[in-house]
Amino acid sequence: MHMLTHDQIWTALDRLAERAGLSASGLAKRSGLDPTTFNKSKRITNDGRERWPSTESVAKALAATNTAIDTFVQLITDRPRVVQSVPLLGLAQAGAGGFFDDGGFPAGKGWEEVGLPSVNDEHAYALEISGDSMKPAYRDGDIIVVSPGTAIRRGDRVVVKTTGGEVMVKELKRRTTKIVELASLNPSHADRTLAPADVEWIARIVWASQ
Fold it and tell me: 121, 158 in Cβ contact below 8 A?
């Protein structure tokens, strides 16, 4: 029987995160661990030695994703699925300048990448939810895929950036030449009404990890 290798165990954790629609840091956070626990930079020590994930961290990741140990073993030997690699940014960072162009397309540096189910938009990107302000629709660590090139209709969940730099996730209630009405995903948060001139861009959410 072959010994389990360092690459195999980390690849299995990456696939576990992918199955849950999470980044490596998102999986760590959902598991109650330090967000950097599963980051690629933590897999090799400063002096070049291999660093293995602890049994406890693997167990917590399995519990957080409701994954059986035999399924995890299967992830070690499975061939990787063909997925689309899309730019990934934390939602909390999205309001800062330099990450989007004027049309709401990803731009500049600071983006990571994550493999997710293929979407029919070469400009699609992913945002990682932080905090609980969007419950029950989205939880901390969930990833949403945003498609700037997809048409938006009433009732769609959207990401909106205002000219003041605020980035929010809402549901589009109504959009006319005079007003943009947005419904909050969390009942405890108020709906928003904006003038079109105050909206820098608006883009539809086409996929979300759940």
Answer: no
CATH class, domain 84-208, is mainly beta
Strands (E), 55-196: 84-90, 112-116, 125-128, 143-147, 157-162, 167-175, 180-183, 192-194
Sorted by where each begins, the domain ranges of the chain are 6-77, 84-208
When pLDDT is cut at 50, 70 and 90, the band that residue 177 belongs to is: very high
CA dihedral 145, 148, 149, 155 (to 10 degrees): 80
Q: What is the predicted pLDDT for the residue at 197?
A: 96
User: How large is the average pLDDT for residues 185-205?
Assistant: 93
- Separation between Cα atoms, residue 109 and residue 106, nearest integer Å: 9
CATH class of 6-77: mainly alpha
Is pTM beyond 0.90? Reply is: no
Residue with tokens 């002096």: 47
Task: Determine the pLDDT at residue 1.
Answer: 44
